[in-house]
UniProtKB/TrEMBL annotation:
Keywords: DNA damage, DNA repair, Glycosidase, Hydrolase. SUPFAM superfamilies: Uracil-DNA glycosylase-like. The keyword Hydrolase applies. This is G/U mismatch-specific DNA glycosylase. It comes from Streptomyces gilvifuscus. Its EC number is 3.2.2.28. GO terms for molecular function: hydrolase activity, acting on glycosyl bonds. The keyword Hydrolase applies. Residues 18-179 form the Uracil-DNA glycosylase-like domain. It comes from the Bacteria.
């Protein structure tokens, strides 16, 4: 993995990381917003401590552990990645309520256009802020966007100590089962 200086990471602030999407995906995963490492590399969930890629594999979504640089392979499994807020920051707490709300509106338009079977938002706090749903919990949601069902997953950031990789993988696997069964 490329090592970046603090100045190189800071230069990535506010950059956009292109979505990995296609029409009719089984699951469109949605992060909060890109971190600086993701913006510097151009790859989603690129920070070494982020557990998204290992959990995706442990849960059975991918047959092997993918590297962030292999993110386009997700499309061959009917999976994609986007974000609630497009701009990169060092921490999610740098985003304000208006950015989350506008991100939720833009995400709903994207989902309506792409028509994935499931939208999986990774981070209950981001989901609550983007969709003004203060009571949301991890798991399937009542909300639908067109015909797309919504599932909230735990945030795979290494900072989310409430969830281990194993318990996260179990929740991801619940979504995988629902996606496979067409629930």
């Amino acid at each position: 993995m490329t090592r970046f200086t603090p100045a190189e990471l800071e230069a990535a602030r506010d950059r956009l990381v292109p979505d990995v999407v296609a029409d009719g995906l089984s699951v469109l995963f949605c992060g909060i917003n890109p971190g600086l490492m993701s913006a510097a590399t151009g790859h989603h969930f690129a920070r070494p401590g982020n557990r998204f890629w290992p959990v995706l594999h442990l849960s059975g979504f991918t047959p092997r552990l993918l590297k962030p640089s292999e993110q386009r392979e997700l499309l061959s499994y009917g999976l994609g990645i986007t974000n609630v807020v497009a701009r990169a920051t060092a921490r999610a707490d740098e985003l304000d309520a208006e950015e989350y709300q506008e991100g939720g509106r833009q995400l709903a338009l994207k989902v309506a256009r792409l028509k994935p079977r499931w939208l999986a938002v990774v981070g209950v706090t981001a989901y609550r802020a983007a969709f003004d749903d203060r009571k949301a919990r991890v798991g399937p949601q009542e909300r639908v966007i067109g015909e797309t069902r919504v599932w909230v997953l735990p945030n795979p950031s290494g900072l989310n100590a409430h969830w281990t990789a194993q318990t996260m993988a179990e929740e991801f696997a619940r979504l995988r089962s629902a996606a496979v069964e067409g629930w």
